[in-house]
Amino acid sequence: MFSARGKVIAFLLFLFLSCGACISFAVTGPAIIAFGGDVKLIRSQGTKESLPEKGMTLDPGDRVITGAGAFIQMNMDKKADSTARVDENSDLVIVMDKKNKFDLISGELYLSVTGASKRGGFVIKTPCAVAGARGTAWRTYTDGKRTEVSGIRDNVFVQGINSDGSVMEDKTWVSPGFERRTERGGGPGAALKMSSERFDRMKEKLKDVLETAKKDGTEKERRKTGSMGASNGGPNAIGESFDKRETMADKKDSGLRDRKSDEKRSADRRDRQSPGRNEHY
Questions:
Q1: What distance lies between CA 26 and its chain's CA centroid?
Q2: What is the 3-state secondary structure (H, E, C) of the chain?
Q3: Across-strand partners of 110?
Q4: Largest CA distance in the chain
Q5: pLDDT mean for each 10 residues of the chain (281 residues)
Q6: What is the predicted pLDDT for the residue at 53?
Q7: Which of 22, 85, 170, 191 could disulfide-link to 110, CB 3.0 to 4.6 Å?
Q8: What gap in Å lies between CA 69 and CA 90, rounded to an integer?
Q9: Separation between Cα atoms, residue 204 and residue 227, nearest integer Å
């Protein structure tokens, strides 16, 4: 039998482990860093459309819909190492489970992923195929009947989806400058080499995506550094304190010189008013 004290300790240990488990399995969704045009959100907790806001965190089950000429970009982590841009005329659902991160119902998605190997990989799913990697950049497009996976940096794998909805076991790889097309119910097609113009457009698009992610990360770091500087006095405050100390020191030296000058003048006056030493001799 446990003593009363032992029961209390066991209960506290149970609570601690339970809370730890809850924290470890907590899911953090992507954060919106930029958007433009007609972008609508349907949150997982409701059916009404809402508008995006910069810095808003999306939750599993949230739906993102972009109109013609619109886009929305999300960072997957605080360091801006992994980012995703949903282009115009797209419909995407946030998933964020162990591997599958997005369900792209239709439209176009650019992804740049870094360090996903530690988190079990990064996978997106369309009605026709699954595409993923552990650290690369690629483009995925689907109209619901056919999916295109285009390699931009490093290799990305593609898997077909069976008619019953299950994912095919075999992975087919796509190299940079190539793309594979997958029809619904079939496996990935042959690797097709992109034209240099098409590949250059994708690389330029990816460059813009990465610059947007980097800019957001830099702004956050600047705000963080600025707030820390303000709370601790900051570089300007430190400079001002040095200036104040130097000014006080200058004033002290000046006062000391003034006192010495006054003492000298007083001594001179006394010397002029009293007989010289030789007269007392």
A1: 18
A2: CCCHHHHHHHHHHHHHHHHHHHHHCCCCCCEEEEEECCEEEECCCCCCEECCCCCCECCCCCEEEECCCCEEEEECCCCCCCEEEECCCEEEEECCCCCEEEEEEEEEEEEECCCHHHHCCEEEECCCEEEEECCCEEEEEECCCEEEEEEEECCEEEEEECCCCCECCCCEEECECEEEEEECCCCECCCEECCHHHHHHHHHHHHHHHHHHHHHHHHHHHHHHHHHHHHCCHHHHHHHHHHHHHHHHHHHHHHHHHHHHHHHHHHHHHHHHCCCHHHHC
A3: 85, 139
A4: 130
A5: 56 46 51 97 89 95 97 85 94 88 97 69 93 91 97 96 94 97 95 98 96 81 60 44 46 58 58 42 28
A6: 96
A7: 85
A8: 10
A9: 35
* Residue whose pair of structure tokens reads 């300790």 in the numeric block: 9
**Site of tokens 């591997």:** 99
Rg of the chain over all Cα atoms, to the nearest angstrom: 34
| pLDDT (tens digit per residue) in 116-140 | 544 557 899 999 999 998 789 999 9
CB burial string 179-197: b at 16+ within 10 A, e below: bbbbebebbbbeeeebeee
Q: Which two tokens stand for residue 246?
A: 């130097």
All structural domains of the chain? 26-218 (2.60.120.1440)
Give just the sign of the alpha carbon dihedral 75, 80, 86, 91: negative
* 84 in Cβ contact with 104 (< 8 Å): no
Summary mean pLDDT of the chain: 79
Note the pLDDT tens digit of each residue in 197-220.
999 999 999 999 999 998 886 766
Cβ 133 vs Cβ 122: under 8 Å = yes
- Structure confidence at residue 48 (pLDDT): 87
